[in-house]
Amino acid sequence: MAGRLDGKVALVTGGASGIGEGTVRRFVTEGARVVIADMQVRPGEALAAELGATVRFVETDVTSEADIAAAVDVAVSEFGRLDVMFNNAGIVGAIGPIAETPVEDWDRTVAVLMRGVFLGIKHAARVMVPQGSGSIISTSSTAGILGGLGPHCYTACKHAVIGLTKSAASELGASGIRVNAISPGSTVTPMTSAVITGDHTAVEEAERSIAAGSLLGFAPMPIDIANAALYLASDESRALTGHTLVVDAGATTIGGSTRFHRMDNAVLSEAGNRQASATA
């Protein structure tokens, strides 16, 4: 079925790489006009140029309210409305044992993973409430479902995304706005490649590693998460709100105890901070 987002305008944070890039491409294929909001200027501009007149890039720090507000305003000024907000930007952030976690790293992680989602929902609502319609989607994680699948702050923030999704859904539903989350498991992106291999470009090695621990025998790719986002963005999910859609190749079904899905603090500490600036 083509054209599932015909006439819709979407904003994707962290849209220049990984899951965000995959989603931007999928949304455009399905007829959406898209604003890419990301700190990665060169990849963001290149993607927008490649995809053409229906895509804009806005340099955006999701921890900055002014930046998020400006990105939303670009969607409205360039394309006339905002139908879909995908709060996807993220980092692994603070790592290591709880007793050794620097508070500065903790605060930075919360700013990206929790404050950034709050700001995205806030400014999407600013536009969508007067419209009387919209779909807001935020990226959580299997670490937001179970403990032990990520570092402490990442886990706390991804649980918070699910809680905020339910809370915002309870308010905004009366205005015709649906609010949902996606919880990906280990997915082949530059960020997971950095965690698993120490090299954000080693995606093929990361794919083999993730596949080795997958219940289904393959590694989820950005397109798998993009397809979930497409469903939540489209009118096909019109009766769904306050929901978290888990896309993890069965990891949480078996308690997350596959070989490479469990990105515990020991693994992350060994990987170090090399992935800290990568987006989801």
Detailed description of the structure:
- With 280 residues, the chain is an alpha/beta fold.
- It has one domain: NAD(P)-binding Rossmann-like Domain (Rossmann fold, 3-Layer(aba) Sandwich), CATH 3.40.50.
- Helix content is 45%, strand content 14%.
- The protein is built from nine helices and seven strands.
- It has a seven-stranded parallel β-sheet, sandwiched between helices.
- The two termini are 28 Å apart.
Give me the secondary-structure topology.
Elements: E1 9-13, H1 18-29, E2 33-38, H2 41-51, E3 55-59, H3 65-79, E4 84-87, H4 103-131, E5 134-139, H5 152-172, E6 177-184, H6 190-197, H7 203-212, H8 222-233, E7 244-247, H9 265-271
- Strand arrangement, largest sheet? 3-2-1-4-5-6-7
Strand content: 5-15%
CATH top-level class: Alpha Beta
CATH superfamily label: NAD(P)-binding Rossmann-like Domain
Which CATH architecture? 3-Layer(aba) Sandwich
- Computed structural class: alpha/beta
Shape: globular
Report, as a whole number of angstroms, the end-to-end distance.
28 Å
* CATH-assigned fold name: Rossmann fold
Q: Count the DSSP helices.
A: 9
Average pLDDT, all residues: 89
Please mark out the parts with pLDDT under 50 across 5 or more consecutive residues, or reply none: 257-280
Number of strands: 7
Q: Mind describing the biggest β-sheet?
A: 7 strands, parallel
Q: Structurally, how many domains make up the residues?
A: 1
Main attributes of the structure:
alpha/beta; disordered C terminus; 7 strands; 280 residues
In short:
The chain has 280 residues and is of the alpha/beta class. The protein has 9 helices and 7 strands, in the order βαβαβαβαβαβαααβα. It has helices spanning 18-29, 41-51, 65-79, 103-131, 152-172, 190-197, 203-212, 222-233, 265-271; strands at 9-13, 33-38, 55-59, 84-87, 134-139, 177-184, 244-247.
